[in-house]
Amino acid sequence: MASHGQQNRGQYVQPGSEAAGGRFGRMFPTVAPREATGLAKAEEFGLPGGKVDGGETTEEQLSTVLDSGFTYFGQFVDHNVTFDPTSMLGQEVDPKALRNFRPPRLDLDNVYGGGPVVNEYLYDPESKGTKLALDPGGHDFARTGNDIALIGDPRNDENLLIAQFHLAVIKFHNRVVDDLRSGQITDVLGAGFPAQPADPPDDLEGAKLDDLLALEDYYGDLLRKAQQVTRWHYQWILHRQFLPQIVGTDLIEDITENGLRFYDPGEQPFIPVEFAVAGYRFGHSTIRSRYQVNAEFAADLFPLDPEADEQPRSDLRGGPVRPEHAVDWRYFFQIDPEIEAAKAKRLEAKLNRRLLDLPVRAVPGAREGALPSQLGSLVVRNLLRSEAQELPSGQDIARKIGEIPLTDEELDSEGPIYLWYYLLKEAEVLHGGRQLGPVGGRIVAETLIGILQADPASYLSVFPRWEPNIGGAGSEFGIADFLTYAGVVPKR
């Protein structure tokens, strides 16, 4: 679910090559690239009025199963595993520039950064570096005097919904810190956290070195334990709730029982370009035109008038958040039986029209008056990028994994087709837009589960039979429990 048209430098990988850790590689290195068809074909699909234009989101286009909040949970996950501050539109393909600046781990480093020593500004100094900083009112990030968010990934402040989910993760972590110290919860292995050593005397000259070191170790251990609790509960939601809804429980069970078939992370895990450039961009089709943010505030995805002032807020742009614009997650996830949560747009080869005419501010590297109209379409950008990365066709990947490809009639096209378009059509034709099909599902599930399995600190590596120990839900723990514990929705 990569950002609007953003390319990670180093995403290009020569067909047939492998990639080292922290880099991009290929899940299907032996499958030949689809022959490029250029801008005209991409425009046929991706311009307003084209094949992928779904118009404004209607009730008939909504998913019957997927809550709208999972669109932005998925975007948050994408920002967790991929990041490249050097990327720019239209750069030359560089086969040697293979680096992904974000380690391929689901470890929330977009929240924690390098820790309080490396990224001190992310942490609350009053907590001795154990809690994350946030706005005193609790409804926004901590910010500089220039309203720059003090967070580990600036992309998470580009959209109100992603920003507010990031804020929920901060609040979850901070409560874990408090509850570990008070003994209300244990660490992930069931051990209580020890009592705090005595504070040193005001006159440090009289303090013993061992006492000072014990206090330093206490706060360091507290941070590490809280991070582990937060990470494992986040990973559980991804693995046990999000992925089954996106790819189906049968595929998850197959991977659990039989292992990965096509993604081999090896000793140095990488992000497959089939995932980054096609598979995980399924989320673009789930984005609605408009959202009810809370009981009193509804917002468009982008402003209807590009020249409109930023205030009063009318859209989901990022930046400072006032209390009246804070997200009520009960409108995005089915948490409260008295509030019907909005559903995401269904998975299909149609995007809402707002994404085919992006405002300049939503296009990385673009400048006012210098963005060609066709490159304001997220679809055109996705399709051209897939050709620049030399991705195989959807039909060839289907054959590779042992599936019978969709027909031209089912695809509403002729000949080998873009992988991204194919996997959306597959979801539409085979599952009525409820979940991804065998091609898209295999790419997404194997990549994310493979990343978890390859991470020596993940719950799947350390303790595969672990169950969440917060909220009393056990194996039923999900996003509703996470948000409730974080204090961003009323306790049920």
Short description:
It contains 14 helices and six strands. With 492 residues, the chain is mainly α. The strands form three sheets. It has a two-stranded parallel ribbon with strand order 1-3. It has a two-stranded antiparallel sheet with strand order 2-6.
What are the defining features of this structure?
492 residues; mainly alpha; two-stranded parallel ribbon; two-stranded antiparallel ribbon; 14 helices; 6 strands; 34% helix; 4% strand; globular; disordered N terminus
Q: Unreliable segments (pLDDT under 50, ≥5 consecutive)?
A: 2-14, 16-21, 84-98
Biggest sheet record = 2 strands, parallel
Cα distance, first to last residue? 31 Å
> Please, what is the average pLDDT?
88
Task: Give the percentage of residues in beta strands.
Answer: under 5%
Helix content: 25-40%
SS field, number of helical segments: 14
Rg to the nearest angstrom? 23 Å
**String of helices and strands:** EHEHHHHHEHEEEHHHHHHH
Could you explain the architecture of this structure?
There is one protein chain. The chain has 492 residues and is mainly alpha-helical. The protein has 14 helices and 6 strands. It has helices at 38-46, 69-81, 109-112, 160-182, 209-247, 249-258, 273-277, 378-388, 394-400, 408-411, 419-431, 438-454, 459-462, 479-486, and strands at 23-25, 62-67, 270-272, 290-292, 298-300, 343-345. A hairpin with a 5-residue loop joins strand 4 (290-292) and strand 5 (298-300). Helix 4 packs across helix 14. It is globular, with a radius of gyration of 23 Å. The two termini are 31 Å apart. Residues 2-14, 16-21 and 84-98 have low confidence and may be disordered.
